[in-house]
Specification:
688 residues; 17% strand; binds adenosine-5'-diphosphate; binds magnesium ion; globular; 6-stranded parallel β-sheet
């Protein structure tokens, strides 16, 4: 704790800085700068070189330059809205300094007649004469060194100019605490890292600011990655530390289930089942995520885990993100567990109060073994007699904090298993699920045909109708996806509606429409109609849920496909071809495609492997844009860049593994954690 206290100046509010009053505090707040240390991550993006003093006959129009001139004459027009104009000169020429909205008193003070002054600003040329309008700096010659500099350029909001921001940031940088490093010397040397203080100082110097590969930048990026992974590691350590009652089972029920399946489990599924079983049998709690592309068969794997927990005398719970998916899982579970003693129930927001009451009672008495539902499963009044495993399906919005809550809720004996169909690159995996063990299902069931991906310009839309018609005759269902145009619900609604009207004319009574403004209840009705084949075509914006199995959907048409990211297109495509018929995906485009768009189509056509696509997507679009990240709305890093610093992720992971066991009473990282706002999260991890 000493570290933090000694250096807590930097964790004060910005208002503690000299020259930062109420108004400036407000402006800074708009830029999300509240504490002094927030200023450190607002790095300059460029610089303004004011270091050279230029003679007036050598000025360059349009450039920001510094001059040394003598004040000759004031022109203060007495007419409103006309600017004040001050004639100045040096030995080589003349220039006017022009001021809008200025007071005469101020001008007379900073520009005394007959005196030499230093002025810096953007050079313009007007009516045959050089001029600078509202100069950035005016200083007496004695103070010229303050102006004559290469000055870092920060992105600033309205109300903050270079001059006032400079006063603040220079104050902070000059007073950075000298702090004992949290890495040892050998490591710093090996990585070619400088001290934290030097690195910050250098990055706020103009010449290093843009280079995210510089050793200074990399040091700070590493700090951030390290802090992030440290939190995950601590979470993992605390979960693993709790000893649980090992599950004891011989697999009688699950073997019966497997025998009855109409298919053979894939090698990948078997491997993952095995990994899960080892966890169930162990004294340490399971904290695992199954990652597998859409349609790779995660559900059955999770059912087998549930079954083993039940055979050990525990209860099992499965949570799905939506009502409809929960119901689908429930129906499947009833089939799979038929002829066993296992009692299964469904609990969602829609469950009748009377039924709900009964379920609550039976859960308490352990007369329900397997409960499937939505978020409703985690209400306070739901109490399990002996919960052995919580399974969470397709939950992208689950951050570290929610996982902590989940693990707590289940109690010490409860294993935790997450499932996700969003294939994400390794760095992102580390970032989001670094506290969990990962099981990957890498192969698809081999009866599955690769989806055929085609592209088509929008002008040829009329060629589609007969193709769709043929599909309907073949008893195939069709997804028609309209992209989100922008943030406006209305525009999205109207584009999807327009399309819907057109398609409805061609296929009366066979089309449904889903978009962002449809409420939850209505949405489930429409999805159900589609599931029950009351309609053949579902027009929607991207709101169709992940995870629901539409076994007869074999054609998906995606309009304006270049508006979607690769991973998103892949996920959309994964909604079709889940049965044993051929799936087809048609990507429609407007106008000419950019080279980038062409690249993306090629990748999609070439591979059906979500992991490869995720990697390519990240390279093409950058980390922040990736699916899942948008969905969670969480911004993980202030300065680290998972693409350019991917090596640092691997190094940080290795280093943390080395120190993992010594973490609990190690104060050395407090300053670091606080710097990146992680200290609070760590304190909230409480399993004692
Ligand atoms: P996801 O991984 O997307 O959750 P599901 O578990 O919903 O995938 O499985 C998709 C479909 O594949 C289901 O109809 C399921 O019965 C089927 N399936 C699962 N495993 C296999 C397998 N090994 N062979 C053939 N079909 C399988
Ligand atoms: Mg699924």
């Amino acid at each position: 704790m000493n570290h933090v206290k000694k250096n807590n100046y930097i964790f004060n509010d910005v208002s503690a800085l000299k020259g930062v009053g109420k108004k400036l505090t407000q402006y800074l707040k708009k830029k999300k700068i509240e504490k002094i240390n927030d200023l450190l991550w607002n790095l300059p993006y460029s610089n303004t070189d004011r270091s050279e003093v230029i003679d007036l006959n050598k000025l360059e129009i349009g450039k920001v330059q510094t001059i040394k001139v003598k004040v000759i004459k004031y022109n203060f027009p007495r007419i409103r809205n006309l600017p004040n104009k001050i004639n100045c000169e040096d030995l080589s020429g003349k220039i006017d300094l022009v001021f809008f909205n200025s007071r005469e008193g101020y001008i007379k003070k900073v520009l005394p007649i007959g005196e030499w002054v230093a002025v810096s600003g953007k050079i313009a040329f007007f009516r045959n004469k050089y001029q600078i309008t509202n100069p950035d700096y005016i200083a007496p010659i004695t103070n010229i060194e303050y102006v004559k500099k290469d000055i870092p350029k920060y992105s600033l909001t309205e109300g903050l100019n270079e001059k006032s921001y400079r006063k603040i940031i220079e104050q902070v940088i000059s007073k950075l605490p000298e702090i004992e490093d949290w890495y040892d010397e050998n490591f710093l040397k090996k990585m070619n890292f400088y001290s934290w203080k030097t690195s910050v100082e250098q990055l706020h110097k103009s010449d290093e600011c843009k280079n995210i590969k510089s050793k200074y930048y990399r040091r700070l990026a590493f700090d951030e990655i390290f802090a992030h992974l440290l939190v995950l590691s601590e979470n993992r350590r605390r979960i693993k530390k709790t000893k649980k009652k090992p599950k004891i089972f011989s697999g009688t029920i699950s073997n019966t289930i497997i025998k009855k399946l109409s298919f053979e489990l894939t090698k990948s599924q078997k491997k993952v089942i095995n990994e899960i079983n080892i966890d169930l049998l162990s004294k340490n709690r399971m904290f695992r995520i199954i990652q597998g592309d859409v349609g790779s068969g995660k559900t059955i794997v999770s059912f087998l885990a549930a079954s083993n927990s039940i055979e050990s005398g525990f209860q099992s719970a499965l949570m799905a993100p939506t009502e409809i998916l929960a119901k689908q899982h429930f129906n499947l579970a009833k089939k799979i567990f038929a002829n066993t003693h296992i009692k299964i129930e469904l609990l969602t927001g829609k469950t009748e109060p009377k039924k709900k009451k009964e379920i609550i009672k039976l859960l308490k008495e352990k007369k329900i073994h397997f409960i499937i539902g939505t978020h409703s499963l985690f209400q306070k009044k739901i109490i399990f007699k002996k919960l052995g495993i919580v399974i969470v399906d397709e939950q992208h919005k689950f951050g570290v904090k929610q996982r902590i809550d989940l693990a707590n809720k289940g109690g010490d004996d409860c294993d935790v298993l997450l499932m996700s169909a969003t294939p994400i690159p390794r760095t992102m995996m580390l970032t989001t699920y670094g506290d969990m063990d990962v099981s990957k299902i890498t192969e698809k069931p081999n009866n599955r045909k690769e989806i055929i991906t085609l592209s088509k310009p929008e002008e040829k839309i009329n060629e589609l109708w007969s193709y769709i018609n043929k599909n309907i005759l073949d008893k195939n269902q069709i997804f028609w996806v309209c992209p989100l145009i922008d943030d406006s619900k209305f525009l999205n609604y109207s584009s999807a509606t327009k399309r819907f009207e057109l398609i409805k004319k061609k296929f009366p009574n066979r089309v449904g429409l889903l978009h962002g403004s449809v409420d939850k209840i209505e949405k489930e009705i429409i999805l159900n109609n589609f599931l029950e084949k009351k309609i053949d075509i579902l027009v929607s914006t991207t709101v169709i849920e992940v995870g629901i199995d539409f076994p007869d959907a074999n054609l998906i048409i995606i309009e304006n496909a270049n508006k979607f990211g690769l991973a998103q297109l892949h996920q959309l495509r994964g909604r079709v071809g889940r049965g044993n018929k051929q799936g087809v995906c048609i990507l429609m485009f407007k106008g000419n495609l950019s080279p980038n768009a062409i690249k993306r189509i090629k990748i999609l056509k070439k591979t059906n492997d979500g992991f490869i696509i995720a990697d390519e997507d990240m390279k093409l679009r950058g980390f922040g844009d990736m699916i899942g990240f948008q969905q969670s709305g969480e911004k993980y890093f202030k300065i680290a860049d998972p693409i350019h610093h991917s090596d640092l992720f691997n190094i940080a992971e290795k280093e943390i593994r080395k120190i993992e066991d010594t973490l609990n009473n190690n104060d050395k990282y407090n300053f670091l954690l606080k710097l990146f706002d992680k200290a609070d999260i760590i304190n909230k991890i409480d399993f004692s």
